[in-house]
């Protein structure tokens, strides 16, 4: 804990931590020492972690990187962080992210973006750590914690993991409780660990998941010992390569990485088969209807009355002015865009054409996966992202859809509620990390992590 705390001070320029909690970290670390001495030490005991700012942590600023939650200190602890602390984990502080987890570059954060510790060759230009869990990824990659929590609605654990050369898993929807995590799109959101390697991911995930009666979508299923399942033996497993993930204009390096992944799994004794997921091309548009729709509803609670920021009113202004001004000041441009898109697709007259249509497409996407799993495929291998980390500011003037294209390989997994893991799989010509994604059957995170282990 002390080593991490001093590393955090030295690496201030990465802007990974947005609220630091050194005193309580040292207190937690001393309590963990005592537990270890007493012989009562679960695997997480004394492990210094960073926590994404989306998690409510009791008495500690939990702002979802938004101005609208300025000054908000929850009275309660999210289930996931509570479980981690009960297991002895230490919280070093809260980590930077895109505002309300909306973004792929960390640039929508009210605190300014976190910075990727990696550079392109000898070029000093700063790169994005990805998003939305960009602070988590930067902190793990730069040794500012041993592990971090992330959340993933459309790729926010897997894309930043790929951009920073670390491992990140989004578990099956319902595996981790969403209670106490600021909601973005409730039918897609899942928490998961971001770690140095697959073994750490197995250990941290173990402590994060489990049934929670406070989240009605949390699954009442036993949690297997994920770490014990890491045998590295994947002989006889069938790995599907989805034809539709060969996107037009995909860089050769990404194709080459994917081919290398196939070879590694084949060498380890897996059977590689070509598969088709025919509705893949509709996933991104469906996601960017469903996620904003749910967000517009979830974000209605930020009204200047219940939490955080409240606008100052001029004399004669009333409650509607207060709502409008507060939301105009408190939400950044990307969040406002999502609220507007979401409100539009849910409005009478457009609901059937957009929202209901997107929900039907979602069912077809889910069925694509069910069909290949029913045909005997154990896991699906794809690239994690269509490129390596890009430069900060590079996408500033681009159409927002350009940014959304980052999620092309990851959103299908959230729409289908499946577990997906991104593992570092090599470097591009400029020396930047690239990730491969494995998608597994529902509730089979243990098998999925074991397949990922074979790629390490
Ligand atoms: N980049 C995607 C978005 O902006 C995914 C974000 C996430 O997974 N939280 O919606």
Automatic annotation (TrEMBL):
Gene Ontology CC terms, in alphabetical order: glutamyl-tRNA(Gln) amidotransferase complex
Molecular function terms, GO-annotated: ATP binding; glutaminyl-tRNA synthase (glutamine-hydrolyzing) activity; transferase activity
Gene Ontology biological process terms, A to Z: translation
Keyword Ribonucleoprotein: no
Pfam family, one: Amidase
List of catalytic residues: 52 (charge relay system), 132 (charge relay system), 156 (acyl-ester intermediate)
InterPro entries: Amidase (IPR000120), Amidase_CS (IPR020556), Amidase_dom (IPR023631), AS_sf (IPR036928), GatA (IPR004412)
Keywords recorded for this protein, A-Z: ATP-binding, Ligase, Nucleotide-binding, Protein biosynthesis, Transferase
Enzyme class: ligase
Name listed for the protein in its UniProt record: Glutamyl-tRNA(Gln) amidotransferase subunit A
Domain of life: Bacteria
Record domain Amidase: where: 1-449
Reactions accelerated catalytically: L-glutamyl-tRNA(Gln) + L-glutamine + ATP + H2O = L-glutaminyl-tRNA(Gln) + L-glutamate + ADP + phosphate + H(+)
Gene name of this polypeptide: gatA
UniProt similarity note: Belongs to the amidase family. GatA subfamily.
Free-text function comment from the UniProt entry: Allows the formation of correctly charged Gln-tRNA(Gln) through the transamidation of misacylated Glu-tRNA(Gln) in organisms which lack glutaminyl-tRNA synthetase. The reaction takes place in the presence of glutamine and ATP through an activated gamma-phospho-Glu-tRNA(Gln).
PANTHER family, per database record: GLUTAMYL-TRNA(GLN) AMIDOTRANSFERASE SUBUNIT A, TRANSAMIDASE
Subunit structure: Heterotrimer of A, B and C subunits.
Coiled-coil intervals, chain numbering: none
Originating species: Salipiger profundus
EC numbers for this chain: 6.3.5.7
């Amino acid at each position: 804990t002390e080593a991490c705390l001093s590393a955090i001070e030295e690496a201030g320029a990465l802007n990974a931590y947005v609220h630091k909690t050194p005193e309580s970290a040292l207190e937690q670390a001393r309590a963990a020492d005592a537990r270890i001495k007493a012989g009562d030490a679960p695997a997480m005991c004394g492990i210094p972690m960073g926590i994404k700012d989306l998690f409510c942590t009791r008495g500690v600023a939990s702002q979802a990187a938004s101005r609208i939650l300025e000054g908000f200190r929850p009275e309660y602890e999210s289930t996931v962080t509570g479980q981690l602390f009960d297991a002895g984990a230490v919280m070093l502080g809260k980590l930077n992210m895109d505002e309300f987890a909306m973004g792929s570059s960390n640039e929508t954060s009210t605190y300014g973006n976190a910075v990727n510790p990696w550079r392109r060759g000898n070029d000093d230009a700063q790169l994005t750590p990805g998003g939305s869990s960009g602070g988590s990824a930067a902190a793990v990659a730069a040794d500012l914690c041993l592990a971090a929590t992330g959340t993933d609605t459309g790729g926010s654990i897997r894309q930043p993991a790929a951009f920073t050369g670390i491992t990140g898993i989004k578990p099956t929807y319902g595996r981790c409780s969403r209670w106490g995590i600021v909601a973005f799109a409730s039918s897609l959101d899942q928490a998961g660990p971001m770690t140095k390697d697959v073994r750490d991911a197995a250990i941290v995930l173990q402590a994060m998941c489990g049934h929670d009666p406070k989240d009605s979508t949390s699954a009442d299923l036993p949690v297997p010992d994920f770490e014990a399942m890491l045998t590295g033996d994947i002989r006889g497993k069938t790995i599907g390569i989805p034809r539709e993930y060969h996107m037009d204009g995909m860089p050769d390096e990404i194709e080459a990485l994917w081919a290398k992944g196939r070879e590694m799994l084949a060498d380890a004794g897996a059977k590689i088969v070509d598969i088709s997921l025919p509705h893949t091309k509709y996933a991104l548009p469906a996601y960017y209807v469903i996620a904003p729709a749910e967000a517009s509803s979830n974000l209605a609670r930020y009204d200047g009355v219940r939490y955080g920021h409240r606008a100052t009113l001029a004399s004669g202004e009333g409650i509607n002015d207060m709502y409008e001004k507060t939301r105009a000041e408190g939400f950044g441009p990307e969040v406002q865009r999502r609220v507007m898109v979401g409100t539009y697709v849910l409005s009478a007259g457009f609901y059937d054409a957009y929202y209901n249509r997107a929900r039907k497409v979602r069912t077809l996407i889910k069925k694509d996966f069910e069909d290949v799993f029913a045909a005997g495929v154990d896991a699906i291998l794809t690239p994690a992202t269509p490129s390596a980390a890009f430069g900060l500011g590079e996408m500033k003037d681009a159409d927002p859809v350009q940014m959304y294209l980052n999620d092309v390989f990851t959103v299908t997994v959230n729409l289908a509620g499946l577990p997906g893991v991104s593992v570092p799989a090599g470097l591009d010509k400029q020396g930047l990390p690239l990730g491969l994604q494995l998608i597994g059957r529902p509730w089979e995170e243990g098998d999925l992590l074991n397949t990922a282990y074979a790629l390490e």
